[in-house]
Write a structure and sequence with these properties.
Rossmann fold, 2 domains, seven-stranded parallel sheet, five-stranded parallel sheet, 10 helices, Glyoxylate/hydroxypyruvate reductase A, oxidoreductase activity, D-isomer_DH_NAD-bd
């Protein structure tokens, strides 16, 4: 059984070595160096593969997306009509929750202010509200959103979440549907986006949406709000609108791990904006060894006659 690794921007040879050890009975190949006859490929392990490659894999059985999202595949012309399996792994989930919790706390505990004061040798405490006074809203209550919501709730934040369909999570207030999104936004001081990229979420985070966030965030001394935290998809945000919102006070600050164009272009004002934390798409930069074990286990289970899990619904985009 031939397995092809096509990972744009990653070291394909290191992936090949891992899968050769984990699946010794399989013919492990790397694109483009050792692709060989495309008709022999049964499994594709992909991250942003070339569209012409996908069209050539006429006997493909399963595609494994080596990342949390699958929009890089669903937007590809001539995508083979085979199951697409997404990565759902405890390591990836925990790394995302770590980043989300870190960013929420950086804003909540005024880290940027105190860091600037340190360089000024300025000793000046600021009013600090309790976490229980701050309302966090999470857009997206899939595996990643639910885990982040649970961790933030344990820290004492008032956490709510929004999803396309209703969800039930202990201790988390749940909203759904178009009306539900507006209701959640108006009670939110810190907005976290973990939505997948779909036709409905492309460009969703614009000035209009940001303007619906809570306007009473300063009801407690020192509680500056609202704040945006985005670790979902860069194409879900309109960066010109985010800058506008930061400049006119609609947003107090933001943390962004994803961008409309990656790497973030040098002229982007997000690099130097005083109210922005920016990281290079590393929020859930999971361990390759962990991902390799996950995919190898799924392939072995599939060949043993078990059904695939975490298969993408192409109609919804996740």
């Amino acid at each position: 059984m031939a397995l092809l690794i096509a990972v744009h921007g990653w070291d394909s040879e290191s992936w090949s070595s891992r899968f050769s050890n984990l699946l010794p009975g399989h013919d492990v190949r790397c694109h483009p160096e050792t692709t060989g006859n495309p008709a022999e490929i049964r499994y594709l392990l992909a991250w942003k593969p070339d569209s012409d490659l996908l069209a050539s894999l006429t006997n493909l059985e399963v595609i494994f997306s080596l990342g949390a999202g699958v929009d890089h595949l669903l937007q590809t012309p001539d995508l083979p009509d085979v199951p697409i399996v997404r990565i759902v792994d405890p390591d990836l989930t925990m790394r995302m929750s770590e980043w989300i919790v870190l960013q929420v706390l950086l804003h909540h505990r005024k880290h940027r202010t105190y860091h600037a004061q340190q360089h000024q040798r300025l000793w000046q405490p600021h009013d600090q509200p309790a976490a229980s006074a701050v309302r966090v809203g999470i857009m997206g209550l899939g595996v990643l959103g639910r885990d982040a919501a649970t961790h933030l709730s344990r820290l004492g934040f008032q956490v709510a979440g929004w999803s396309r369909s209703p969800k039930e999570i202990d201790g988390i207030r749940s909203f759904s549907g178009a009306d539900g999104l507006d209701d959640m936004l108006k009670r939110t001081d810190i907005l976290v986006n973990l939505l997948p990229l779909t036709q409905d979420t492309r460009g969703l985070i614009d000035y209009r949406l940001l303007s619906k966030l809570s306007t009473d965030g300063k009801r407690h001394p020192g509680c500056d709000a609202p704040v945006l935290v985005n670790a979902g998809r860069g194409a879900s945000q309109v960066e010109a609108d985010i800058v506008r919102a930061l400049d006119d006070g609609t947003l107090a600050a933001c943390s962004l791990d994803v961008f409309e164009t990656e790497p973030l272009p040098a002229p982007s004002p997000l690099w130097t904006h005083p109210k922005v934390y920016a990281t290079p798409h590393v929020a859930a930069d999971s361990d390759p060894q962990t991902l390799s074990h996950y995919v190898a286990e799924r392939i072995q289970a599939f060949e043993a006659g078990e059904g695939l899990i975490n298969v993408v619904d192409r109609a919804t985009g996740y």
